[in-house]
Amino acid sequence: MLSAAQVEEFDKNGFLKGGVILGDEEVERLREELDLVMDGKSVKRPVLNRNMRGGESKLYDNMKMSVDEKVVQIVNIWMASDLFYRHACHPVLCEEIAQLCRTDTLRIWHDQVQYKPPVSGGPTGWHQDHPLWPIIQPADLVSAWVALDDAVIENGCMWMVPGSHKWGNQMKYVASTKEFKPYHKEPALLPADAVVEAVPFEIKKGQVGYHHCLTWHGSPHNRSERKRRAIAVHYMPGHTRYEPTSSHVMHDYVEVRPGDILSGQHFPVVYSSASS
Ligand SMILES: O=C(O)CCC(=O)C(=O)O
């Protein structure tokens, strides 16, 4: 349960560090399970298991990667692994996300592992999540990003731009310098008091970091000798609707009509305050 001060901090900045919610053994079991899925050895399969490298990925085209860089992206590992499904149902994550979303119901929109291997780990370019999810509305989802290794500056932790979740959809103007500093291509379009300045979001192994789906964020290279693994679960509040305007990898799994609440077996309810 988050305090009122924590909720206020999240509302102000668009991100918040939570507590350590996984012990060493739990992290170890998730790491083993991740290896199985990543190596294609699990019985069930995730929706995506790929290297998000330049050319293969249009998601982050404001940040090109060279061919020897690697960011393994797995989408919906919960469909391949009961352990990861249970992780998405973690009572602390769900209760705190429900607080931040002011909702009594949560569904999984989708989850996402991003693994940056030692030395060759590539960047994840500056972006906002919701503009990359053009089949759902409104833009008020919150994600729970749990580190499976200490995520620090040296191994490519995420960076966040405080307050940027209040600036609306700016995705087509969000850009990055060579030094991985974010900037806006048409700053006059931002609110007068907007300051585009990124801060590191270091998260300990087993700890959770929350971010709003409009917060500008990204993560640079991992040139260290350490792995950087993490599992993000992107949660939908009870009122999220299916409103397709473009394509998305989860589109094929939708069974409802435009305008309907996005429900169904691939978007399971993982929290309902009526049941707690
Ligand atoms: O893991 C990362 O570095 C980026 C993850 C991300 O963009 C997200 O969870 O929304």
Structure in a nutshell:
The chain has 276 residues and is of the alpha+beta class.
Number of strands: 16
Q: State the oligomer.
A: single chain
CATH superfamily: q2cbj1_9rhob like domain
- What are the segments in which pLDDT stays under 50 over at least 5 consecutive residues? 55-61
Name the CATH architecture. Answer: Sandwich
Shape: globular
**Helix and strand sequence:** HEHEEHHEEEEEEEEEEEEE
**Which band does the percent of strand residues land in?**
25-35%
Quickly count the helices. Answer: 4
What is the fold-level CATH name, i.e. the topology?
A: Jelly Rolls
Bound molecules: 2-oxoglutaric acid
Helical amount? 10-25%
Helix and strand content put the structural class at alpha+beta
* CATH classification class: Mainly Beta
How can the largest sheet be summarized?
8 strands, antiparallel
Number of domains: 1
Radius of gyration computed on alpha carbons: 18 Å
Distance between the termini: 14 Å
User: What's the overall average pLDDT, rounded?
Assistant: 94
